[in-house]
TrEMBL record:
Domain Phosphoribosyltransferase, chain residue ranges per copy: 23-153
GO molecular function, one term: AMP binding
Gene Ontology cellular component annotations, sorted alphabetically: cytoplasm
Subcellular location(s) of the protein: Cytoplasm
Keywords in alphabetical order: Cytoplasm, Glycosyltransferase, Purine salvage, Transferase
Stored InterPro entries: Ade_phspho_trans (IPR005764), PRTase-like (IPR029057), PRTase_dom (IPR000836), UPRTase/APRTase (IPR050054)
Similarity-based family: Belongs to the purine/pyrimidine phosphoribosyltransferase family.
Subunit structure: Homodimer.
The gene coding this protein: apt
Protein name: Adenine phosphoribosyltransferase
CDD domains from the UniProt entry: PRTases_typeI
Biological process according to GO: adenine salvage; AMP salvage; purine ribonucleoside salvage
Amino acid sequence: MDLKSLIRDIPDFPKPGILFRDVTTLLSDPAGLRYTIDLLAQKCSEIELEVDYIIGMESRGFIFGAPVAYKLGAGFIPVRKKGKLPAAVHSIEYQLEYGTDTLEVHQDALKPGCKILIVDDLIATGGTASATAKLVQKIDCELIGFGFIIELRDLQGRKHLPDVPIISLVEY
């Protein structure tokens, strides 16, 4: 299946000069969605036989991470923006192009030593994925890899990530 044909390009979003890769068209295609989840789960299972948790970042990481966790027999842990989780959290602040942001995970969600696979829809500059990896490592979990639907290779996000396997289904 040609996943690129299911991903819509939107020029000048969110600002002029940016070509946005929109996965909502992929999500609305039943066969494309099933194929994407199955393929990502298959490739992720090849990284490590045992995965305790899939972490997905707000919000499209939730969409792809939860069904991959289901397919791999792992738990799913959401990483959210600051102030969205109701219990005590671990947090990490990270740099954005125009400022900073904060990611959080519940303190009781992860235990030291558990094996984590981070899943998101897209890797661009690697900022959010890198911050999530640092958050996982701060809790003394074992980061075993990353899984992305889309990778924007020209932005070189990989170079900001730890040296673990990185899966991307579609590259631009």
